[in-house]
Write a structure and sequence with these properties.
With 561 residues, the chain is of the alpha/beta class.
């Protein structure tokens, strides 16, 4: 089987090399007219028409002037009142990881509303799996499924005595496994915790409870989901899912798949379907090029990702105030009164910041808690000179990012990408069961980041939450939780700002703002047609906007059925 996998990989590499020279989408001259064209330029102009030639925007303005670009080969596209927008730029997602976990059975709170439904789906998954084979199930969520009975090791042993079983949480920061899974993964009672916030839950007698916290501890349990043969098809479907939501560029925080696979699957008929950008994690640094290469318009490695803390939903987010003592917290495995943990020593963080930025790489730092962000800010100020180049460092997620840190970070060119869906999906539980109402009213200071011109972006962190751009925008504007509660209303932003966060700001973070993120002459013709202008609908209906067509360099990549 190993030889087969290697041979397949070599064959696919040959195909990749043979076809990559065709990587530029076919040239088709286009003129769009008949609806609002939202440039998202500095003046936020809305124009009547836009012309494309050889995959690049060549003219925009009033219809009459743009029509002078028409030739015999030009295709005219009448918007019929629909809106033309720049393609969205996803600044922080995990499309490869989404493809990995798409191989698991679905137990998510997005498709199951009760404990009974979750357990029924789990029993069916076990029944459908031959004896001895791994059962993977994902999306376990005690927040979206409030009555969930988390299946600990003994319950999973009884449910599946003949199969190793791993259940992955919706957050991807924790998992639960049975005894057979621990044995197959080679994790025994003598196995030490991996550290850096990762550990195996144990009872008072030292026996495994089945709970597994954070990615290092989870790694040996999910290795089977990374087999290339099944992964290729799932990754292609994942990329098409991004296109259907209006995204033309996506940044992945970690490869999670072999680089050749990521390149190959992004091709359709030997031509790119989407632009891919990568930040590599510690286990992937062998793939880090000798120096940044910004020439490839479709596939680039931009830098590295570091973790400073973990997740509020495992209690590993590093906070100044203790986590609440609540029933939900106990279900999630959070120790009451704990403060989380950092995953990297301060001197190591400073050293790595200096080393990577000196070599020209961006550093994206996962930092969620207020204490985590304070420590990260001190490291950045120590590592970067006052005249540091902009966007050398990004802050990822930034749930509890103290506002007083932002002015100095802004001077260093630091830019945050906000995990805004914490508000919509988990905001109610953050307030009443995890960090408390006072802390919940301090979350995600997006407006302050805009005020300081930090080029903030928004992200879904898929597969944790659905990659729905207009939903992200709506949440950033309304700041409403699922129950209608408003968290930190002072940090609400305008629709215009929300659109910029999903386009030109995210492009700036990736270093492609001269080529993407707005509709301007000379930029890539990465476009989307939407049924209505986001400026023309009530803010509570932004999430209902529908993407109808998507173009990459002027080539149609998606059309809604």
């Amino acid at each position: 089987m190993r030889k087969l996998g290697v041979g397949l990989g070599l064959l696919l590499l040959v195909v990749l090399v043979a076809g990559w020279w065709l990587s530029r989408p076919p040239s088709t001259d286009l003129i769009f007219y008949g609806g609002p064209i939202m440039t998202v330029n500095q003046q936020d102009e809305v124009v009547e028409a836009l012309a494309v030639r050889d995959g690049v925007i060549v003219a925009l303005g009033d219809t009459a002037s743009v029509m002078t670009q028409r030739s015999a080969n030009t295709r005219l596209i009448d918007l019929q009142g629909r809106a033309l927008l720049p393609g969205f730029v996803a600044a922080h997602e995990h499309p490869t990881l989404a493809a990995v976990f798409a191989g698991a059975h679905d137990l998510s709170g997005f498709t199951h509303q009760s404990n009974a439904q979750v357990w029924s789906a789990l029993r069916q998954a076990v029944a459908d799996t031959p004896s001895g084979e791994w059962v993977y199930a994902g999306g376990l969520d005690a927040i979206l499924v409030p009555d969930l009975e988390v299946p600990m090791r003994e319950a999973l042993d009884a449910l599946a005595p003949d199969n190793p079983v791993v259940l992955i949480s919706q957050t991807l920061h924790s998992a639960w496994a049975n005894s057979m899974a621990f044995a197959e993964a080679g994790v025994t009672a003598d196995t030490p915790d991996p550290g850096s916030g990762s550990y195996y839950g144990r009872d008072a007698q030292g026996a495994f409870t089945g709970f597994i916290a954070e990615t290092r501890a989870m790694a040996p349990f999910v290795a089977g989901l990374r087999a290339p043969l099944g992964l290729a098809g799932r990754y292609g479907q994942t990329l098409d899912g991004y296109l259907s939501q209006g995204f033309t560029s996506v940044a992945s925080l970690g490869y999670n798949v072999p680089p050749w696979l990521a390149q190959l699957v992004a091709l359709r008929d030997f031509r790119p379907r989407i632009r891919q950008f990568f930040y590599l994690v510690d286990s992937e640094l062998q793939y880090l090029p000798d120096a940044p290469d910004h020439d490839d318009p479709y596939f680039r490695v931009l830098g590295v990702k570091l973790w400073h803390d973990g997740s509020p939903y495992t209690g590993s987010m590093l906070t100044s105030a203790p986590y609440l003592d609540s029933e939900l917290g106990k279900t999630l495995g959070i120790e009451p009164g704990s403060h989380g943990a950092r995953m990297i020593a301060q001197d190591e963080l400073v050293a790595r910041l200096r080393r990577y930025t000196a070599a020209g790489w961006q550093v994206a730092i996962h930092s969620q808690g207020d204490e985590s962000n304070r420590q990260v800010a001190r490291a950045i100020l120590a590592a970067l000179p006052p005249d540091a180049d902009s966007r050398q460092v990004r802050l990822e997620h930034s749930v509890l990012l103290p506002e007083d840190l932002l002015p100095e970070l802004a001077k260093r060119g630091v830019s945050p990408s906000f995990h805004i869906n914490h508000i919509l999906y988990y905001g109610d539980r953050l307030a009443d069961s995890i960090i408390g109402r006072h802390a919940a009213q301090q979350v995600l200071p997006v407006r302050r980041a805009f005020d300081l011109q930090m080029h903030p972006s928004l992200h879904a962190d898929s597969p944790m939450f659905p990659t729905e751009a207009f939903s992200l925008m709506q949440t950033a504007v309304t700041r409403q939780t699922a129950s209608g509660q408003v968290l930190n209303a002072a940090q609400a932003i305008s629709v215009r700002q929300a659109l910029r966060a999903m386009t030109i700001n995210a492009a700036w973070q990736l270093g492609i703002e001269q080529q993407a993120g707005s509709l301007e002459v000379g930029k890539w013709a990465d476009l989307q047609i939407v049924d209505q202008s986001p400026y023309a609908v009530p803010t509570q209906r932004l999430s209902a906007l529908t993407v109808e067509e998507v173009y990459l360099a002027g080539a149609l990549q998606y059309r809604r059925d």
